[in-house]
Amino acid sequence: MRLALSACAPFSLQAIITSHGWARLSPFFVEHQTAALGRVERLSTGRVVELIIREAGDGVTVETPDRLEGFEREEVARKVWWMLRLGEDLSPFYEAVREEPRLAHLEREGIGRILRSPTVFEDVVKVLLTTNTTWDRTVRMVEALVTQYGDPLPTDPSRHAFPTPDQLAAVREEDLRAIGVGYRAPYLIDLARRVADGEVDLEQLKDDNLPADRVRRLLQDLQGVGEYATALLMVLVGRYDAIPVDTVARERVSQEWYGGRPVGDEEIDRAFARWGEWKGLVYWWWPWSRDTGCKKQEAECR
DNA sequence: GGTAGACCTGGACGC
DNA sequence: GCGTCCAGGTCTACC
């Protein structure tokens, strides 16, 4: 089966794949030879399929070896639409950065979109697994979680979809610790249980009309989600005025604007304040002149 | 409100 | 080979 989906111009699938490390996190995978983004996906019916996404025409094609029913095709299209932000019109962003020579290439090269998971739940789990650890460990933790608890792909049972909230909610804390997530185990189980029970509706965060304060409060109410994780998740759901301030950001901004002296959150915010609602996206795509902060998270260095 | 220490793991380093 | 230190973001106890 093959689906064709169009995107708001300018568009570059390659730019999305390299937008951050998410494409390296299971169940995403990258076919480097064909420049395709792949993913093992569990549909709402419980069916597990492999999706291969390639750039084509004014958007992408989505291929799967499986024959899908009409409603399944709609679900796949909806998910890919969200993951790649196909409907996002970034022209106001490009307009805002047009006067900045170091960002002028973004529009020309179709850079701006950031890869995200099909569900906010999956992104919250992955962000939790990026905190207080190195990138390589994040990759291993996500891989272990997917392999242990996600549904297998029928045609290749060694590969799995991302586990659902119900599946993670049923896991024992000691079993999660055993796969290496450490102290994050109770946070993950608490999150999965609250989502599975309907106490927390993370998918409502996809709604642009939800007030930013409410989005922030809902995220910060989750165990293990602090200021950095909240800001990163806000950017992922499309709230581009948030800056994920971690040690990498601190060091980069310190070197770029403050002569290497230690900086606080306010100074980081001030450095990007002139881009207003787009400052988080400007931070994301800023061409850092020094190779600071990439000692550990090499996969995220562009 | 601000600060210190614990959480957890793997890599780097010294012996 | 072994022990120690360090890095990462969040939470909690304490002042």
Structural write-up:
The chain is built from 14 helices and 7 strands. It has 302 residues and is of the alpha+beta class. A 5-stranded antiparallel sheet has the order 1-5-4-3-2. A two-stranded antiparallel ribbon has the order 6-7. Helix 5 packs antiparallel against helix 11. The C terminus is likely disordered. The structure holds a DNA duplex (15 and 15 nucleotides).
Features:
two-stranded antiparallel ribbon, 302 residues, five-stranded antiparallel beta sheet, globular, 14 helices, DNA-binding, alpha+beta, disordered C terminus
The average pLDDT score comes to 91
Distance between the termini: 34 Å
The residue ranges in which pLDDT falls below 50 over 5 or more consecutive positions are 290-302
| Rg, nearest Å | 19 Å
- Helix content range: 40-55%
List SSEs in N-to-C order.
EHEEEEHHHHHEEHHHHHHHH
What layout of secondary structure does this protein have?
Blueprint: E1 2-6, H1 13-17, E2 28-31, E3 36-42, E4 48-56, E5 59-63, H2 70-84, H3 91-97, H4 105-109, H5 120-128, H6 135-149, E6 152-153, E7 156-160, H7 165-169, H8 173-181, H9 185-196, H10 212-220, H11 227-236, H12 247-257, H13 265-272, H14 279-285
Antiparallel strand pairs: 1-5, 2-3, 3-4, 4-5, 6-7
The structure holds a DNA duplex (15 and 15 nucleotides).
